[in-house]
Amino acid sequence: xxxxxxxxxxxxxxxxxxxTGYIFLLGGAPVPWCSRKEPMVSLSSCEAExxxxxxxxxxxxxxxxxxxxIGVEKCGGVNLRIDNISTINLAKNPIPYGRSKxxxxxxxxxxxxxxxxxxxxxxxxxxxQVADVLTxxxxxxxxxxxxxxxxxxxx
Length: 155
Prior knowledge:
The chain is an alpha+beta fold. The protein is 37% helix and 22% strand.
């Protein structure tokens, strides 16, 4: 299963909140996916991405437990693909420092899951970030590319 998560930092010009998006692809089809506004204004792109990955982590752990429970397969760890190296570093070492000490504690669930080995974060190049479709309206090319790859059709 491929899992992607992304955020667009302060894209909403009315309230300056970011949009979070995640998508899990199973056999090329989106199983769970979500696009929603983050609950607070982020002070940095790292914070916006960290919040997005934390929200996705909750869904990933729930889905992993569901798959284990119904006995389809044993999941082990889940890999999440994100395009922000600062977020990956913060999740691996969640000690508050300078630019990250303002992040609400509830979002540090991500660091806990990474340290337990339930989640692994992978760097994903921005041009391969599937979740961009859910956070940035100008990324329709990514959606068209996915449809062409999945269904071998020309649009």
